[in-house]
Predict the structure.
Amino acid sequence: MKMFSLTIAGPVLLALGCAGNYPPPTQQMADVQSANRSANELGAQNNPRAQLHLKLAEDQLLQAKAAMDHDDNRAADRLLTRAKADAELAVALTREDNAKTEATKAYDQSNAQRSVNVEQGAHP
Protein backbone atom coordinates (compact mmCIF):
# COMPACT_ATOMS: atom_id res chain seq x y z
CA MET A 1 0.00 0.00 0.00
CA LYS A 2 2.88 2.35 0.82
CA MET A 3 4.51 1.63 -2.53
CA PHE A 4 1.23 2.37 -4.29
CA SER A 5 0.98 5.77 -2.54
CA LEU A 6 4.52 6.68 -3.56
CA THR A 7 3.84 5.60 -7.13
CA ILE A 8 0.92 7.99 -7.38
CA ALA A 9 2.21 10.77 -5.13
CA GLY A 10 5.57 11.06 -6.88
CA PRO A 11 4.30 12.11 -10.32
CA VAL A 12 1.63 14.34 -8.77
CA LEU A 13 4.20 16.21 -6.68
CA LEU A 14 6.51 16.45 -9.66
CA ALA A 15 3.72 17.92 -11.80
CA LEU A 16 2.83 20.43 -9.10
CA GLY A 17 6.45 21.42 -8.69
CA CYS A 18 6.82 22.07 -12.42
CA ALA A 19 3.62 24.09 -12.59
CA GLY A 20 5.23 26.99 -10.77
CA ASN A 21 8.16 27.06 -13.17
CA TYR A 22 6.24 28.32 -16.20
CA PRO A 23 8.62 30.69 -18.01
CA PRO A 24 7.69 34.36 -18.42
CA PRO A 25 6.10 34.91 -21.85
CA THR A 26 8.44 37.75 -22.81
CA GLN A 27 8.44 36.95 -26.53
CA GLN A 28 4.65 36.89 -26.63
CA MET A 29 4.65 40.25 -24.82
CA ALA A 30 6.93 41.71 -27.50
CA ASP A 31 4.75 40.24 -30.26
CA VAL A 32 1.61 41.82 -28.82
CA GLN A 33 3.30 45.19 -28.40
CA SER A 34 4.48 45.02 -32.00
CA ALA A 35 1.02 44.11 -33.29
CA ASN A 36 -0.54 46.94 -31.25
CA ARG A 37 2.00 49.39 -32.65
CA SER A 38 1.23 48.23 -36.21
CA ALA A 39 -2.49 48.63 -35.64
CA ASN A 40 -2.01 52.15 -34.29
CA GLU A 41 0.27 53.13 -37.17
CA LEU A 42 -2.31 51.93 -39.70
CA GLY A 43 -5.00 54.00 -37.99
CA ALA A 44 -7.00 51.31 -36.20
CA GLN A 45 -7.99 53.80 -33.49
CA ASN A 46 -9.90 55.74 -36.19
CA ASN A 47 -11.59 52.66 -37.64
CA PRO A 48 -14.83 51.71 -35.86
CA ARG A 49 -14.52 48.02 -36.74
CA ALA A 50 -10.91 47.79 -35.55
CA GLN A 51 -11.22 50.05 -32.49
CA LEU A 52 -12.87 47.40 -30.33
CA HIS A 53 -10.24 44.78 -31.07
CA LEU A 54 -7.40 47.23 -30.46
CA LYS A 55 -8.93 48.18 -27.10
CA LEU A 56 -9.35 44.52 -26.17
CA ALA A 57 -5.71 43.83 -27.07
CA GLU A 58 -4.51 46.75 -24.98
CA ASP A 59 -6.63 45.69 -21.99
CA GLN A 60 -5.44 42.09 -22.23
CA LEU A 61 -1.84 43.29 -22.43
CA LEU A 62 -2.30 45.22 -19.18
CA GLN A 63 -3.92 42.19 -17.55
CA ALA A 64 -1.03 40.00 -18.71
CA LYS A 65 1.50 42.42 -17.21
CA ALA A 66 -0.40 42.27 -13.92
CA ALA A 67 -0.46 38.47 -14.05
CA MET A 68 3.30 38.40 -14.65
CA ASP A 69 3.79 40.73 -11.67
CA HIS A 70 1.96 38.13 -9.58
CA ASP A 71 4.09 35.31 -11.04
CA ASP A 72 1.13 33.82 -12.90
CA ASN A 73 2.95 33.33 -16.18
CA ARG A 74 0.53 30.72 -17.46
CA ALA A 75 -2.41 33.14 -17.22
CA ALA A 76 -0.23 35.87 -18.76
CA ASP A 77 0.56 33.57 -21.69
CA ARG A 78 -3.15 32.89 -22.31
CA LEU A 79 -3.97 36.60 -22.11
CA LEU A 80 -1.15 37.47 -24.49
CA THR A 81 -2.33 34.86 -26.99
CA ARG A 82 -5.78 36.49 -27.00
CA ALA A 83 -4.28 39.98 -27.12
CA LYS A 84 -2.16 39.11 -30.13
CA ALA A 85 -5.16 37.69 -31.96
CA ASP A 86 -7.18 40.84 -31.25
CA ALA A 87 -4.32 43.14 -32.30
CA GLU A 88 -3.78 41.19 -35.52
CA LEU A 89 -7.52 41.32 -36.23
CA ALA A 90 -7.44 45.10 -35.73
CA VAL A 91 -4.58 45.28 -38.25
CA ALA A 92 -6.45 43.11 -40.76
CA LEU A 93 -9.70 45.07 -40.43
CA THR A 94 -7.88 48.37 -40.84
CA ARG A 95 -6.02 47.12 -43.92
CA GLU A 96 -9.26 45.82 -45.40
CA ASP A 97 -11.05 49.13 -44.93
CA ASN A 98 -8.06 51.07 -46.27
CA ALA A 99 -7.98 48.83 -49.35
CA LYS A 100 -11.72 49.32 -49.92
CA THR A 101 -11.31 53.09 -49.65
CA GLU A 102 -8.44 53.07 -52.13
CA ALA A 103 -10.37 50.85 -54.53
CA THR A 104 -13.37 53.19 -54.39
CA LYS A 105 -11.12 56.18 -55.10
CA ALA A 106 -9.54 54.41 -58.07
CA TYR A 107 -12.96 53.44 -59.43
CA ASP A 108 -14.22 57.01 -59.10
CA GLN A 109 -11.11 58.41 -60.79
CA SER A 110 -11.50 55.92 -63.62
CA ASN A 111 -15.11 56.94 -64.15
CA ALA A 112 -14.18 60.63 -64.07
CA GLN A 113 -11.46 60.09 -66.65
CA ARG A 114 -13.84 58.06 -68.81
CA SER A 115 -16.30 60.99 -68.77
CA VAL A 116 -13.54 63.42 -69.77
CA ASN A 117 -12.48 61.15 -72.60
CA VAL A 118 -16.05 60.90 -73.91
CA GLU A 119 -16.44 64.68 -73.72
CA GLN A 120 -13.28 65.04 -75.80
CA GLY A 121 -14.60 62.78 -78.50
CA ALA A 122 -13.24 59.38 -77.50
CA HIS A 123 -15.46 56.38 -78.10
CA PRO A 124 -16.30 54.30 -75.04
Observations:
- The radius of gyration is 26 Å.
- The mean pLDDT is 88.
